[in-house]
Amino acid sequence: xxxxxxxxxxxxxxxxxxxxxxxxxxxxxxxxxxxxxxxxxxxxxxxxxxxxxxxxxxxxxxxxxxxxxxxxxxxxxxxxxxxxxxxxxxxxxxxxxxxxxxxxxxxxxxxxxxxxxxxxxx
Length: 122
Ligand SMILES: [Zn+2]
Ligand SMILES: [Zn+2]
Ligand SMILES: [Zn+2]
Description:
Bound molecules: zinc ion
Number of helices: 4
Shape: rod-shaped
Largest sheet: 2 strands, antiparallel
Strand order of the largest sheet: 1-2
Oligomer: single chain
Radius of gyration: 22 Å
Structural class: alpha+beta
Distance between the termini: 65 Å
C-alpha cells in the first residue's frame, strides 16, 4: 500500500521507486539503465551508451579514451596506450601489436610464424 511509483524518463513506464536510478538528471528503470548506459572500463563511471568512446568490449568515457586509449591507425582496434606500438620515425601513428608486426615484416621469423599459424587453423 505504500509502494511509490516513478515514471522512467526513457521508456515512460511506471516502476516502483525502489528500482529507480538517477543518472544525468534523469530517473531510469533498471531495464533502460542497462540499455542506455554503460560503465567506463577504465574509471568505472557510468556514461550514456551514445557517449561511449571505446567499443562494446571496452566501453570508455571520453576522458579515459583521450587520456589512456588510442585506435590502431591500421585496423582501428581499440588499444590501451601501453599496448600501442609506434613507428620510431616521422609519424606518431599508434599500431596494435599485430599490425606493427605486419608492417615490420622483413624479419624472417615472423613470416614463418604466420605460415605456421595458418597451417594449424586448417
Ligand atoms: Zn525505462
Ligand atoms: Zn572513464
Ligand atoms: Zn591494428
